[in-house]
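Changelog note: in this version the structure field was regenerated for every chain. One regenerated record is shown below for reference.
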Amino acid sequence: KVMAARWVAVLRGAAAGGRAGRVAAGGPAVCRGAAIRATTRALSKSPANTADNQDDSIANRIVKGIGYFTGFYSRSQVTLRAARNVYLSTSAHTANPVFYEICGLPDTLQSWFLVQQLHIWMLLVRAKKEGTQGKLFYNQLVQFFWDDVEHKMLLMRVDDVTIKSESARELNDMFYGLLFAYDEGLVKDDTTLASAVWRNLFHASKATATAQDVAAIVKYIRREMQALDRLDVKDLFEDGIVAFGPPPAKSASPPEGWTQKDA
């Protein structure tokens, strides 16, 4: 119980003394904006996606020939680079403060985890429909997510080995629990999806959030899932092009018959 309490303090970005609670200078607010910028730099250390270079000079064609010979243009390497591009663009999208404002989420690591995981889940649902290449993309995207989590913990100076080990289990359980909850809502109805959203994204604002707030997130999820379904496989798995739509607005009506009590 003591370990669990210490980890909750880390996850929520508590700044109250001890290695478990220390955050970067500037307090918990640093955890989202600065961490995402650092993540971009960290992931960009992977092999550059020079496949998009349009220069058709003789030198460039020679370089491309070497790339084919060395496996740079193999399906697995192309998919890896696409997954990285998708993850980076998704991270930039989820940095929008609207998500945190509408859900009443504080600016902490836990809040970032919940918003980012929601978007990763939507991408994973799309990837699962595409066979072997989809599975490869799925695995790469999940790996980038966990690399990002670890990187943000480093930014918060979580350097206790025991806490890191415990946190890995806690976050793993949370991640896959959320996948299951959102999957269930996706295949059932908006009422089920609203309940999953309410339990998780609105955990910090249940006293002030409205049914319209929850409905806005549900409407956003449905809209983005439809857009992802229409997305060309090449754009996703080769070019790594995914453009989420604008953040949710509070004008949506709640699912018929749903109230906070249903959650």
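Spot check on this record: Confidence is low (pLDDT under 50) at residues 1-10, 13-31, 46-54. The chain is about 65% helix and 0% strand.
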